[in-house]
Amino acid sequence: MNRTYSQPTAYTPAYPQASRRRAPSKSSRRVAPWLLLGAAIAAGLTVVLMVVGVIAAVVLAPDRIPAGVQVAEVSVGGKTVEAAASALESSLSDRSITALDGDRRWMLSYGDLGVSLDVAATLAAAREAGAGDNVEPILTIDLTQAQTGLVTLSDQVNIAAVPGDTPQIGRAMEIPVILDRLRQDLAGELADGVLELNMIEVAPPASEPVVEYTGATTTHVVESGQELALIAREYGVSMDDIVQMNAITNPDLLYVGQELTIPAAGPYVPAQAPAAPTNRGKAIVVSTSDQRIYAFENGQLVRTHLVSTGRAQTPTVLGDYAVYVKYVADDMSGPDYFLPQVPYVMYFYSGYAVHGTYWHNSFGRPMSHGCVNLPVAEAEWFFNWAEVGTPVRVV
C-alpha cells in the first residue's frame, strides 16, 4: 500500500510575551469600602457631637429673663431665674400699703396682711414676657392672718360712740367686707398701694338705766376694742358711775388689761327677760331690741349676755327656728363678706347662726350681716350647752 507522507512543518513553540501594564489614572482608582464606611461614621459622629453640644449649651446655660422685663418696677430683665427671685423677694418683703379712712391713714406691711409673693408663678410669667414688658406680681394671701392684722389695726382706726348730752357717732371697721375684697381681687386692691377701709357708723348706746346700787362691786378687765359705754351696759350700770368710781379722766382712753371696779355684783340680768319658748328642755331666745341672748332650761333662765345682731341693711331673721348643725369652726361668706374659721358656729336657719366673734368687741349694738355675734368665750359656752335641735326664738 502506497502511503504518501507530507513534509511536516517545522514546529516552533509559542512563548508568551510579557504583557505591558498601563498605570491607572487617579480618576480610575477604586477606594476600599471599609474606608468609605469609616468616613461616614466619622462624619455622623461629628454631627451628633455638634447637636449634643448645642443641647448642652441650651440646657446648661443659665435660664434668663428677657431683657428689659420688670416686675412691680423691679428690674429682672437679663437676670437668671435665681437672681431674679432674690431681687423680687428682697424688694417685696418690706413693701407696705396705706390704709385710708377719709383723711386718716395708717401704714400696713404685706406681712401684716398675710400677703406674700408667689415667686415661682411670677417668674414663670416673667420668662414668658416680651422684652421690656412690665409684669404684675402674682400675690397670695393668708386670710386668717389678714383678719388678725385688721383686728389689730382696728384698735387705732375705730372711734368709740359716745352717749350723753352731746352724743357722738362712732366709726368701726367693717372687717368682713374688707376681707372679702382682698379674697376676690387681691392684686387689684393692692395695685396702687392704697387700701380703702370699709367703715360702719355706730350710734351711741341707749340712755343709761337708773340704778340703785347695793354696795356690791365686781372687777372687769378691759379687752381689746371695748368701749366704756358698752361695758356699763353689760353690767346694767351708769357709765358716769364707773368713771367716778375709777377716777377716769378720759372715758375714751381705756387700755387692754385695765381693771375697772364696777358698782354691781356681776353681769346684768334683766328683770323683764323674754319668755322661754318651752318649759321643757333647753331653749335659746335672742332679743334684737335688747341685743341680748338668753339660755333657758326647763323654763328657767340660766345664762344671758350681750350680742350683736344684724344691722338695718342686713337684719337678723325673726321667728322660731332650731339649731340644725354645729361646727367648732367654719368659713362663713355672703354676697359681700368673708370670714375664715369663725369659732363655735350653730346654724339655726339657712346661713344665719349664733357664733363667736373676734373681729369686733361692740357687743350690745347691731354689727353683723344677720348672724348673732357673741364673744368667743360666751359662744363656746352656748355651743357646749345647746344640742342640735335646740329651739331658737328671735324676737
Please give the share of residues in helix: 25-40%
Distance between the termini: 172 Å
Helix/strand structural class: alpha+beta
How much of the residues is beta strand, in percent?
25-35%
Q: What is the string of helix and strand elements? A: HEEHEEEHEEHEHHEEEHHEEEEEEEEEHE
Computed over alpha carbons, the radius of gyration is: 44 Å
Spans where pLDDT lies below 50 across 5 or more residues: 1-21, 23-29, 52-61
- Overall pLDDT: 84
Instruction: Kindly give the count of domains.
Output: 3
For the sheet with most strands, the description reads: 5 strands, mixed
Morphology? elongated
Strand order of the largest sheet: 15-14-13-21-16
Topology, number of strands: 21
Question: How many separate helices?
Answer: 9
